[in-house]
Amino acid sequence: MTFSIIARDPASNAFGVAVSTAVPCVGAMVPWAKVGVGAIATQSFTNVELGREGLRLLEYGLSPRAALEGLLAEDPGAALRQVAGIDAQGRTFAHTGGECVAWCGSREGDGYSVQGNMLVGQSTIDAMTDAFEASAGKWLGIRLMAALEAGQAAGGDNRGRVSAALLVTPMDATKGPPPLAFDARRYETNIRVDEHPDPVAELRRIFDLMLRMGREQR
Fold first, then answer.
1. In order of start, what are the domains of the chain with their CATH numbers?
2. Would the pTM of this model clear 0.90, i.e. be above it?
3. Do the Cβ atoms of 163 and 196 come closer than 8 Å?
């Protein structure tokens, strides 16, 4: 149904989620992130409480594993869920229920997790991982966008494409000099594309427009 990536940038303490799927309004359901707290992607027969309550528990200091395992233990549909989380320490946790539709799985790395279900295969996850790691040192939004495009290029959702979203929290205000003009890193990025024949490409177009507007203000 969905492929996504969650991540934390240790240099700026920003969190983000990028996702695409074959149903509409993915940006309202899957990506969850909060400044200074963490990020969660909840998908596959999506239970939004895993995102909402998961962030609340992370804010209380629980690890992603403790927070999400606790919520899944109370969820009668846990076997159908896929969820991943990351916290302010960069700790990750990913769960793929035994009844998720194949191909399904995840891959965790240093400060990120990639996951998907109902995909064409493992290649989607691997391509996203490779793209994210290859863009190390760049702004988190750029890295997440590159990973999402790589997943789409590798096959993505085996049912096709409908919606995509990118959510990135602002960087830590104490890091870096005061902005002299628009700087996308200092604001929340929340871009959603719905009911589009090529949502990842449209997400890229809007993302690039946002960055270009920032450059033109300098």
1. 2-216 (3.60.20.10)
2. yes
3. yes
- DSSP tally for the chain: helices H, then strands E: 5, 10
Distance CA 149, CA 165 (A): 12
In whole angstroms, give the CA distance from residue 150 to residue 148. Answer: 5
The full DSSP string for 122-162 is HHHHHHHHHHHHHTTTS-HHHHHHHHHHHHHHTT-BTT---
Give the tokens for residue 11: 């240099």
* Phi-psi region at 36: left, alpha or beta (left = phi > 0; alpha = psi -120 to 50): left
131: CB partners within 8 A, 6+ apart = 143, 146, 147, 149, 150, 151
Asked if 80 and 37 touch (Cβ cutoff 8 Å), the reply is no
Which residues does the chain have with pLDDT short of 50?
217-218
Contact 54, 40 (CB under 8 A): yes
Res 217: pLDDT: 45
